[in-house]
Write a structure and sequence with these properties.
By secondary structure, the protein is an alpha/beta fold. The chain has 5 helices and 5 strands, in the order βααβαβαββα. The chain binds ligand CA2.
Length: 153
């Protein structure tokens, strides 16, 4: 029997996540973005899925990336960072592209300032993982793989 096509997952890191490890270690830990990306790539390899990883500080660029994702990817893992709480444009782009999406956060956004308690993205995501540091990403990727595997059965 032919081997099934590998799932392709787009990982999007939002604004300022490139600064991880350099400031605010009490909130985000000491992990850096390249370390998170390495872990995601090795988890992807272990589970025989493809990942492409992008980081952008620009809302419009994130909207464009999501808009082009439909034909190439099966799902999106996103940490929208500060845009979580403000971006109707990213929410609309996720809805329009129709791909299943999982939202992740390093910190527990519900244990922080009031303005971080609302996510505009959560209602259009399959689910949200918040508060587990770098593990939030690994858990998010596993959740997506599970979703895609279940949809195939
Ligand atoms: O906890 C998360 O993953 C957040 O998405 C991180 C965002 C924040 O605005 C969200 O409310 C929750 C901030 C990302 C910027 O990260 C920095 C890392 C080091 C130094 C400064 C910012």
């Amino acid at each position: 029997m032919a081997r099934p096509k590998k799932h392709a997952i787009l990982v999007i890191h939002g604004p300022n996540l490139g600064l991880l490890g350099q400031r605010e270690p009490e909130v985000y830990g000491r992990v850096t973005l390249p370390e998170i990306n390495d872990e995601l790539r090795s988890l992807a390899k272990e589970h025989k899925v493809k990942v492409e990883i992008v980081q952008s500080n620009h809302e419009g660029e994130i909207v464009d990336t999501i808009g082009k994702s439909k034909d190439t990817f099966d799902a999106i893992l996103i940490n929208p960072a500060a845009y979580t709480h403000t971006s109707v444009a990213i929410r609309d782009a996720l809805l329009a592209c129709g791909l299943p999406c999982v939202e992740v956060h390093l910190s527990n956004i519900y244990a922080r300032e009031q303005f971080r308690h609302n996510s505009l993205i959560a209602p259009v995501a399959k689910g949200q993982i918040s508060g587990f540091g770098k593990q939030s990403y690994a858990l998010g990727l596993l959740a997506i793989i599970n979703l895609l595997d279940s949809a195939r059965k």
